[in-house]
Automatic annotation (TrEMBL):
GO terms for molecular function: nucleic acid binding. It holds the Pfam family R3H. Residues 99-140 are annotated as: Disordered. Residues 20-83 form the R3H domain. Residues 99-114 have a biased composition (Basic and acidic residues). It comes from the Eukaryota. The lineage of its organism: Eukaryota, Metazoa, Chordata, Craniata, Vertebrata. This is SPAG7 protein.
Length: 165
């Protein structure tokens, strides 16, 4: 039992040193990112939950915005953005879907949403549609009965006197 406790303590100290080293390495990478003028965002390699939380903390201390993306624990990664290049909601949604951000596609989606909203607004201005069937049944069966069949049948119909009509 004492050997196991000593081994556990040694592993915990080693893990603590690794975390401190990782934090220093992330601080250096973040400072390089801040000094790089042409880089609005940086994507880091997938990492585990503890490393991501350390990176988020380092980014917050540095005054940057950071987000995690990815589906499962093994493929989650962190993206760090400079404050002046903070991502829009559409950009974040694209990253969450696993797509690359394309401003032209985002503009097209925005225009389509605006067009749909305008159409919906126009429908609301017209008011509700009157209740009733959406089309005439005669139109549906025109190919079977023709357009003159009903009129011809109505003209030739005579009352049956046997039934008292």
């Amino acid at each position: 039992a004492p050997e196991q406790a000593a081994r556990m303590k040694k592993l915990q100290e080693q893990e603590k040193r690794q975390k401190v080293e990782f934090r220093k390495r992330m601080e250096q990478e973040v400072s390089q990112f801040i000094q790089a003028t042409g880089e609005p965002r940086r994507r880091f390699q997938p990492m585990n939950k503890i490393e991501r939380s350390i990176l988020h903390d380092v980014a917050e201390v540095a005054g940057l915005t950071s987000f995690s993306f990815g589906d499962d624990e093994d493929s989650r990664y962190v993206m760090v953005f400079k404050k002046e290049f903070a991502p829009s909601d559409e950009e974040l949604d694209a990253y969450r879907r696993g797509e690359e951000w394309d401003p032209a596609r985002a503009e097209e989606r925005r225009r389509l949403r605006e067009l749909a909203a305008q159409q919906e607004e126009a429908e609301l201005e017209r008011g509700p549609t009157p209740p009733g069937p959406p089309n005439d049944y005669k139109d549906k069966y025109r190919h079977l009965i023709g357009s003159d069949a009903a009129k011809a049948a109505a003209r030739t119909m005579e009352a049956n006197k046997a039934y008292g009509c």
